[in-house]
Design a protein that fits this description.
The chain has about 200 residues and is of the alpha/beta class. The protein contains seven helices and five strands. Helix 2 packs across helix 3 and helix 4 crosses helix 5.
Length: about 200
């Protein structure tokens, strides 16, 4: 089933799980970069930071990239907040790169791609994306659109204990509305050519 064909007004629990909660983590020994995505809600951002800290403390990444400025709904600079958080938790600042101008997921990806010269990479590069599971489909669809480089392999790592888990969302009408609005936005971006359409049957 293509994402563009899904009826946003008939978003069942089964569809929510398939679209937003079926992209699984992949095991990886080591990543050249960990990209940590910002969020205008500090409660969720703190969850992402704690997930990133777990990975960093295992010594599994070489460099950390913080991405996020002041979003449309935000009132603080996400990357600067993340930088302060990591330094307070004894992460070496020399490991950290900061992209603090983006205001959307799409700008996150484009700015990071340019910062790290992804289009020029000509040898194997492992990149782990750290966010919430419900956010991953947007990331994948947008990266597929803007980046064509087989040398770069993305891994996914995400927060597991969160109020934005599948079990919590399907019980909460307000959270379900948030996912519905996200699906509407994704479909709008497909129509505008910002994302390529995606067949959710390919999600393992």
């Amino acid at each position: 089933m293509m994402v563009s064909s899904i009826d946003s007004n008939n978003l069942t629990g089964e569809l929510v799980k398939k679209i937003f909660f079926s992209i699984e983590k992949e095991d990886y020994e080591y990543a050249d970069y960990l990209i940590l995505y910002g969020c205008h809600l500090k409660e969720l951002l703190d969850e992402r930071l704690e997930q990133a800290l777990k990975i960093i403390k295992l010594g599994k990444v070489k460099k950390i990239v913080l991405t996020g400025g002041i979003g449309v709904n935000g009132n603080f600079n996400e990357s600067e907040y993340m930088l302060d958080y990591l330094i307070k938790n004894n992460v070496d600042q020399d490991m950290i790169l900061v992209e603090n101008q983006s205001t959307t997921t799409e700008e996150n990806n484009i700015n990071v791609m340019n910062l790290l010269n992804f289009n020029e990479v000509n040898s194997q590069l492992n990149v782990v994306l750290v966010t919430h599971q419900f956010h991953l489909l947007k990331l994948i669809m947008h990266w597929n659109k803007i980046l064509d480089n087989n040398y770069i392999h993305f891994y996914f790592d995400y927060v597991q204990k969160t109020k934005m888990s599948y079990d919590n969302i399907i019980k909460d009408p307000k959270l379900m509305e948030l996912l519905k609005s996200q699906l509407i936005k994704i479909k709008k971006y497909i129509d505008a050519g910002i994302y390529d359409d995606f067949d959710i049957k390919t999600i393992k």
